[in-house]
Amino acid sequence: MSIIPHLSQTMQTLLTTTTEAVAAALQYVKRPDRAKFTPSTLVQTLVFGWLAHPTATVEQLAQMADRVGVDVSPQAIDRRFTDATTDLLRTVLSASMQQVVAADPVAIPLLQRFTSVRVHDSTTITLPDALTSTWRGCGNATDRGTAGLKCGVQLDLLTGALCGLDLADGRASDQTLPVRGPSG
């Protein structure tokens, strides 16, 4: 089975139908009649914008919004960096973990001795300072920023499946991330 069509359909559903359902459950949209952004176009703007430019400015994100069909100012993007948007993105990300997308297994004799071979890695992502109350960073306003996100992932080398995801404050130590499991 080719993984690309499956992944494409999964991403499309996640960034549209799933996002709208999550937003409804969270009561994310307060005034739908006045909003230029729908939850799905906002999530698409942020995901595609940051995929294209991991350190994208609000101006670059506004350009991406135009590409997904929403004409908004950089200030409109900046106003979306709220706790409610954090909850929306976190819940959509959690929903994405329910979608199993795995590569075709590779037969490496040494690994076939095991039922699972998991690799864990993490990275710290600097966030806009407006998110400091949600995600505490490592530095200060003049250094690395006051907001940061530690993202830990776990991958099973036998199946290629993403089998764990952990989000924590940017200042969290890798050893404190629960996704590491008992064997550390």
N- and C-termini, Cα separation: 33 Å
What would the principal axes of the Cα set say about the shape? globular
- Helix share, percent: 25-40%
Q: What's the tally of helices?
A: 5
Structural class, by secondary structure, is alpha+beta
String of helices and strands: HHHHHEEE
What's the main sheet like?
A: 3 strands, antiparallel
Uncertain ranges: 180-184
- Order of strands in the sheet with the most strands? 1-2-3
In quaternary terms, these chains amount to single chain
Q: In terms of topology, how is this protein built?
A:
Blueprint: H1 3-26, H2 39-52, H3 58-67, H4 74-79, H5 83-96, E1 118-127, E2 147-156, E3 162-169
Helix pairs in contact: 1-2, 1-5, 2-3
